[in-house]
Design goal:
This protein has about 280 residues and is α+β, with helices and mostly antiparallel strands. The chain has twelve helices and twelve strands. Bound molecules: flavin-adenine dinucleotide.
Length: about 280
Amino acid sequence: MKNIRSYIFPKTVEEAVDALALSSSARIVAGGTTMVFSKDARVETLVDITRLDLSYIKEEDGFIKIGPTTTVADLLRSPIAAKFGGGILAEASKRVAGSHIRELATIGGDLAITLPWCDLQPAFLALDAELVIYDGEEKNISLADYYNDRELMKRSGWLIKEIRILSDQKGIGVFEKVSRTKIDYSTLDIAVYLEKEGGVIRSPRIAAGCAVPMPRRIGEAEKILDGQVPGPELFEKAAKTAKNSLRTVTNLRGTAAYRSHLIEIVTRRCLEKAWAALNGQEA
Ligand SMILES: Cc1cc2nc3c(=O)[nH]c(=O)nc-3n(C[C@H](O)[C@H](O)[C@H](O)COP(=O)(O)OP(=O)(O)OC[C@H]3O[C@@H](n4cnc5c(N)ncnc54)[C@H](O)[C@@H]3O)c2cc1C
């Protein structure tokens, strides 16, 4: 951050996007907990979006709507997050860093970038979240598609204006983070969401983050579960498929081989927990 020459507080979302579009050396800053470590010498302008009234969590028009500058701490304190989807958003928020960082780090900042410590991404993927992107016009894009859209990520002159989750989802989500200490960056994040119809699984979603090059849904394993009567063998098969479908990475927090091994174990455990919770028991 040594070349910063201007720090702007835009008054509106339009002004923020204009400032970003005007200069290739401008970047958004929200909580600043990642930006503060940036060594990108090209960055000369920071556009601070924390005074745009974009901090809220509300239920409206069939969606849970979350403003991008809502902090992780606010998500953790939110009664909506505690209740919705079995409390998966609260569980994921609790595992983001320590309490001081959570008061600063924003949901938008955690979802926008694909760095290997952003714990909220798999939880939001498992809830099939979508982003409202503003670049002069509003566009909706599913979070899963956003992580595949490298062109959008590279472009300047846009921001995440809102995060939306369909509020009529009646299933249960489970999030697990494996880390070396309680507040360390993640070795692996897995999030699972299941619904129950009669005795079978519906709308299964499984997502992985931090151990993989990009956070992603594991459609290969989801297909195995959809419409099936659950049981140990089915969960084992889905967990093995999850492991075999993902390319894992090696870094300070674990080798690729260790992370692959964990994917199978943690996915199976999350599936068991989610199904048990749907049936009102502890897994
Ligand atoms: C010591 C430490 C430990 C941490 N541990 C964890 C952890 O365990 N788990 C975890 O999940 N996080 C952790 N974090 C926080 C991590 O930095 C955040 O997850 C996230 O990146 C921060 O959000 P922010 O608001 O601070 O983002 P910023 O630093 O302000 O921005 C991050 C990036 O997102 C972009 N951005 C921000 N808002 C938007 C928007 N609305 N639209 C488009 N782009 C946007 C910025 O331009 C920048 O590129 C840790 C941080 C620190 C300092």
